[in-house]
Amino acid sequence: MIGTYFWLNNELRPVAEAVVPADDINFAYGFGVYETLKIRKRLLYFKEQHVDRLLHSTHIIGLEHPYQAADLSHALSELCRANSLEDANIKMLLIGAESPEHTKLYIMALAPFFPPRTSYRDGVHTITVQAERPFPEAKSLSMLVSTIAFRSARRAGAYDALLVDREGFIREGTRTNVFYCDMASPEIVYTPPRSTVLDGVTRRTVIEALNEDGIDVVERSLHSGELGKFCGLFLTSTSSKIIPVASVDSHQVPGSLLTRRALKVYNDYLERYRASLDKQAR
Questions:
Q1: 3-state secondary structure 89-155
Q2: How far apart are CA 198 and CA 100, in angstroms?
Q3: Are 142 and 258 part of one and the same domain?
Q4: What backbone phi and psi angles, to 5 degrees, belong to 162?
Q5: What is the pLDDT of residue 282?
Q6: Residues 153, 174, 156: CA angle, nearest 5 degrees
Q7: Residue 230's domain is classified under what CATH number?
Q8: 159-206 residue pLDDT tens
Q9: Alpha-carbon distance 111 to 78, whole Å?
Q10: Last residue of some domain: 55, 79, 110?
């Protein structure tokens, strides 16, 4: 955790008070949801989209709470202002309780994550792990499956693990969404259906950016048996934006001009987003 303050329920508190009671069974059993946002050069990206998704996640798992979108948006702004954050990740945790008024909202600043520049140039290695997240459309605290898979990836020297369901379909990474091109239609970008994955804010904005640039994005299930047909694969997340994949297990993924184009298109999209907010602030 970084900064002087964190947010608890409805107020700023010193970071020394950022603790979770050991007997909080809702936290221990993962009955909660979370979001991770990023601040880069003092700009908090896509605040409204992250707030909306946090609320959507609470609906999926049946977590009742007293917060409205405006409450969460205000809390995020106050935390960033109080800590004078330049570059950081922001984590929001909403932990359930027996009654809505006893839910706990934690918001804290964390050190930012910047992948090595070589990852964008050369791509990264990934592995596949047979696993499925419960309630895939919710960003819940039930992260055991993803944690085990991610630790397996790290032991294998991989950037991330791709989760494969019992039917053999690749759904998503442990903390990333998946996009790919195949040799039959290399001008189209595909991504697994939204109903089977966490619909990441970066996933959404990448799709929007590509569509604005005239690139078709089609939702289609991705079977692990199709790995040899790839002519481009990339992962998306809040911290990494777009990361090209060079290999999956023992399969080498050819570089794709469309992947390179997607990197540029999304970086340009983020610059336009920053410029639009700067203009509004004047």
A1: EEEEEEECCCCHHHCEEEEEEECCCCCCHHHHHHCEEEEEEECCCCCCCCCECCCHHHHHHHHHHHH
A2: 25
A3: yes
A4: -95, 125
A5: 60
A6: 5
A7: 3.20.10.10
A8: 999 999 999 999 999 999 999 998 888 889 999 999 999 999 999 999
A9: 18
A10: 110
